[in-house]
Design a protein that fits this description.
Oligomer: single chain
Number of domains: 1
Shape: elongated
Structural class: mainly alpha
Order of helices and strands: HH
Number of strands: 0
Distance between the termini: 73 Å
Radius of gyration: 26 Å
């Protein structure tokens, strides 16, 4: 059986190396604005924009429902 303590130590060293590499890449790509998984931060919509989007969606659904009643 392998020495689990040695395996654990190797994994900790590998994690430390990876953490350093991630930190270096984060600095190059933009630091705090870059997320770990590469996704962009979520955008904030204004209240007026949300109302316009909701009104447009209600209009689309009304059009769909009107088409079903005609058939």
């Amino acid at each position: 059986m392998t020495n689990l303590g040695a395996v654990l130590q190797q994994l900790k060293q590998e994690r430390s190396r990876l953490d350093k590499a991630i930190a270096a890449l984060s600095e190059v790509t933009g630091g705090a604005n870059a997320s770990i998984d590469g996704n962009r931060p979520k955008r904030q919509l204004s209240v007026a924009a949300r109302k316009r989007i909701a009104a447009a969606q209600r209009a689309r659904w009304a059009k769909v429902r009107a088409g079903k009643k005609a058939n």
